[in-house]
Amino acid sequence: TTVVRPGFVYGGQGGFVANLFYSEPLVIQGRRDMRWSWVHVDDLGEGYVAIARAPRVVVDKQLYNLAAPNDNPTYEELRTAMAKAQGRKETIEYKEADKDVPTRWNTDS
C-alpha cells in the first residue's frame, strides 16, 4: 500500500481558486488564520505518475506528501493578496464556516 496526501489543489478550470478571484464581495469564510499547503494540479499529476511508474519495492509502504513544503500563506493573506493584485478595493466580509473541517484523523484502526 502506498499513501498519497495532496495539498490544497489549484489550477485547471478554476474551482476554489477561481472563486477567490471572482466572488463579490470579498468573503473570508471560516478560520482566516488557517494555513494551507498548496499544489498545482499539473504538479500533483506528475507526482502521481512518478509514484505509479516507480518500482513497487520503492513505493510500497510509503507515504508521500505532494504539497508545498515551506511557509504557506494563511487563507486571509492569500485572499487579500489576490484582491490587491486585481486592484479590488471592496470591503472584506468575514463569515463563520458552515461546519468544521477536521484537521486530524485517527488512523489507528
Automatic annotation (TrEMBL):
Q: Which InterPro entries match?
A: NAD(P)-bd_dom_sf (IPR036291)
Protein name (database record) = Uncharacterized protein
